[in-house]
């Protein structure tokens, strides 16, 4: 079982930046496929980005967000630039140890973090 802990959320003005971190433990980190999802109040959870060797992005964040990983630190990062009020949500990281044909299918992930709140004010 993988334990995931997110950090880095907060309140930022529109146009600003935040960097989220997802620290993993319990499994060999380099084998893990890691994704970020987000869920706004009253909305379904949605895919944001994923990484293994390649990176994958939702259309709504492509060009603004960058996902990266540091295997030595067992950590995945989500650099979020040019933030918009519609990016406000709880952000979760998730892990799976097999490749997925669609990294946006949240039911395929078997480990989740507790989430970190991101609030973007207009």
Write the topology of this structure.
Layout lengths: L2 E5 L2 E4 L4 E8 L7 E7 L6 E6 L3 E3 L7 E6 L4 E6 L8 E8 L14 E2 L3 E6 L1
Parallel strand pairs: 2-11
Antiparallel strand pairs: 1-3, 3-8, 4-5, 4-9, 5-6, 7-8, 9-10, 9-11
Proportion in helices: under 10%
- Average pLDDT: 96
Low-confidence stretches: none
Largest sheet geometry: 7 strands, mixed
Q: What is the structural class?
A: mainly beta
Number of helices: 0
Structure description:
The protein has no helices and eleven strands. Helices cover 0% and strands 50% of the residues. It has 122 residues and is mostly beta strands. It has strands at 3-7, 10-13, 18-25, 33-39, 46-51, 55-57, 65-70, 75-80, 89-96, 111-112, 116-121. The strands form two sheets. Strands 2, 4, 5, 6, 9, 10 and 11 form a seven-stranded mixed sheet that branches. A four-stranded antiparallel sheet has the order 1-3-8-7, with no helix packed on it. A hairpin with a 3-residue loop joins strand 5 (46-51) and strand 6 (55-57). The radius of gyration is 13 Å and the shape is globular. The mean pLDDT is 96.
């Amino acid at each position: 079982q993988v334990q995931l802990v997110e950090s880095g959320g907060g309140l930022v003005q529109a146009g600003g930046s935040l960097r989220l971190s997802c620290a993993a433990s319990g499994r060999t980190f380099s084998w893990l496929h890691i994704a970020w999802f987000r869920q706004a109040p009253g909305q379904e959870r949605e895919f944001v980005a994923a990484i293994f060797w390649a990176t994958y992005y939702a259309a709504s964040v492509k060009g603004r967000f960058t996902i990266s990983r540091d295997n030595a630190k067992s950590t995945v990062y989500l650099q979020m630039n040019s933030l918009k009020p519609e990016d406000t949500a709880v952000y979760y990281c998730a892990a799976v140890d097999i490749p997925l044909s669609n990294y946006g299918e949240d039911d395929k992930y078997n480990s989740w973090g507790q989430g970190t709140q991101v609030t973007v004010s207009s």
